[in-house]
Every structure is written in structure tokens, then in C-alpha cells.
Amino acid sequence: MKFFIDTANLEEIKKAADYGFLDGVTTNPTLMAKEGLSNQTERIQAICALTSGPVSAEVLAVEPQAMLKEARILASLAPNVAIKLPLTLEALKIAKILAEEGTSVNLTLVFSALQALLAAKVGAAFVSPFVGRLDDIGVDGLSVVEEIQTIYANYGYETEIIVASVRNSQHVLKAALIGADICTIPFAVISQLASHPLTQNGLSAFLADQAKLKKA
Ligand code: E4P
């Protein structure tokens, strides 16, 4: 299972890379705004320099031709940029053009397996179902991911599923149990993955006993 980090914060990306399990990065306009950035170009380039994995950069334009133009500019920033487009009918057309040009496309804001089927049909490299936001409205987000997996397996689609809108370690666990390709995880949740109270208690006890050994 690949781990992407869901952030536009360079320090968080560096730390995750240092841990040794960073396979890519996803950003979105909200994450960019959180960093106080008005223009994402330089930040995308800086992120791409920190990882060789895919870095999703979201297109902000809404009109189709403007979307295509912006997507091509973003794709030219670095070889590992993946173009993030919202799953709308207009954006699907743009996604198909970009995919045919050899650009990796990540269709985002996906909330149903049928939307994900369309993403695969236009040749998107990635599809991002938002599990946390589905949970928020009383739908089991991971069950939608399971449906997508079944449909992709039925037809041999190669679009990779990025489990997105991850809120806690249980989302990561369940995504791994159902065999999702990728989880994009906020830094706070990445940090939680290694922690267990019994690990901490055990370590404290071992350290205390080690101190006794030294004295002996
Ligand atoms: C990632 O691609 C998404 O933009 C992100 O996971 C959305 O997360 P949120 O629902 O917590 O905003």
C-alpha cells in the first residue's frame, strides 16, 4: 500500500520523507490556503523536489479551455505532477485529453463508485474517493471504496484508488484491509500510526530495568 501525505506544508513532507514511507503528496486549494499561499506554482515545484512520487496539484479554473490551459502549465512544472480535477462531466472531457497526452490525472471529489467508473473510463491514473466526508453524511466511505475496487477488478481498470479525506488511523487500517492502492494521510494521522500505549509503557519499563542493570 502506498502512503501519500495530504498537505502543502514543506516541513510535514520533509518529516514524512525522513520516516521513509512517503510515496507521494496530494494538495488541494484548502491546503494551499492554509499555508497562506496565493499562488501554488512555486509550492508545487518545491514539493516535487522533495519526492519522486506523484504530487497532485489541483486545477482552479472552472471553464473547460481555461482548465486545460492551467492543467498543461501545472503538468510542465515537474515530471511527477499529477493533475487534480473535480469529477464533473466537463472535467472528465479535459481528463481524457490530458490522459491521452500522457499526463497523470487524479479525479477528485469522488463520492460514488459510478463516478469512479467514469474516472477509469477516461483513463485517469488516480481516483480519489473522500471517505471522511462520506462518513460525515452517514455513508460508510470505505464501503464505497470497496465497490470501486470490485468494479475496477471486474474490468481490469488500472486507475489507482487514492483513499482521501482520511481522518483517523482506522481509515488507514480499513483501507489496507480492503487492499486500496493508496491512502493519502494528513501528517497528524501519520504520526498516530506508530503509536500504541503498550509500546510506550513497555519502553518505559525496559528503560527503567536497563538503568537497574547498569547499576548492577
Ligand atoms: C485529497 O486529495 C483531498 O483533497 C483531501 O484528502 C480532502 O480531505 P478533507 O475532506 O479532510 O478536506
Order of helices and strands: EHEHHEHEHEHEHHEHEHH
What distance lies between the first and last C-alpha atoms, to the nearest angstrom?
46 Å
Structural class: alpha/beta
Largest sheet: 8 strands, parallel, barrel
Widest β-sheet, arrangement of strands:
1-2-3-4-5-6-7-8
Bound compounds, each kind once, are: erythose-4-phosphate
Q: Helix count, per DSSP? A: 11
- Taken from the alpha-carbon principal axes, the silhouette is globular
Determine Rg (CA atoms, Å): 19 Å
Query: What average pLDDT do the residues reach?
Result: 96
Low-confidence stretches: none
Q: Features of this protein?
A:
216 residues; alpha/beta; binds erythose-4-phosphate
Describe the structure.
The protein is α/β, with parallel strands linked by helices. 53% of the residues lie in helices and 17% in strands. An 8-stranded parallel β-barrel has the order 1-2-3-4-5-6-7-8, surrounded by 8 helices. Helix 1 links the parallel strand 1 and strand 2 (24-26). Helix 4 (64-75) packs parallel to helix 5. The longest helix is centred in the C-terminal third of the chain and has 19 residues, at 197-215. The chain is globular and about 75 Å long. 35% of the residues are buried. The mean pLDDT is 96. Bound molecules: erythose-4-phosphate. Erythose-4-phosphate is lined by residues 6, 26, 28, 30, 108, 128, 130, 132-133, 164-165, 184.
Secondary structure blueprint with pairings:
Elements: E1 2-6, H1 10-19, E2 24-26, H2 29-34, H3 41-50, E3 55-58, H4 64-75, E4 81-86, H5 89-100, E5 105-110, H6 113-121, E6 126-129, H7 131-136, H8 141-155, E7 160-163, H9 169-177, E8 182-185, H10 187-193, H11 197-215
Parallel strand pairs: 1-2, 1-8, 2-3, 3-4, 4-5, 5-6, 6-7, 7-8
Bound molecules: erythose-4-phosphate.
